[in-house]
Design goal:
By secondary structure, the protein is mainly alpha-helical. The protein has one domain. The longest helix has 13 residues. It is globular, with a radius of gyration of 14 Å. The N and C termini lie close together (about 10 Å).
Length: about 110
């Protein structure tokens, strides 16, 4: 799937979808959030990124942090992925990701 097609595939699932990994803003970019070169101050960028109705920041909570360390079954050791998966599981949301390690993990619903 080409990056410009991401939003078509996931649009029907918003706002109940956790957007993460290479799909933080699927209609805009196809790279990790940590690799972004922002064109404005972070606060301004976040305001613009969260402007579309239904998008929100999900705060890390103690239960999510604990869950991320107690995921069922084998899961790889990337702490960021553990937090993403734990958040999706705790919120009962499907996860949109191109990450095959997450997609192959049988304890979280994924879309893609």
């Amino acid at each position: 799937m080409r990056p410009e097609e991401y939003s078509i595939k996931i649009a029907e699932f918003l706002p109940e979808t956790v957007l993460c990994g290479t799909l933080n803003r699927p209609s805009t970019f196809s790279q990790s959030f940590y690799e972004l070169q922002l064109d404005r101050p972070l606060d301004d960028w976040l305001d613009a990124a969260l402007a579309p109705e239904g998008l929100q920041v999900i705060e890390l909570s103690r239960p999510i942090l604990v869950d991320s360390c107690r995921l069922p079954g084998p899961f790889h050791g990337d702490p960021a992925d553990q937090l993403i998966v734990a958040t999706a599981r705790r919120r009962g949301m499907p996860l949109v990701t191109a990450d095959s390690r997450i997609r192959e993990y049988g304890h979280v619903k994924t879309i893609w």
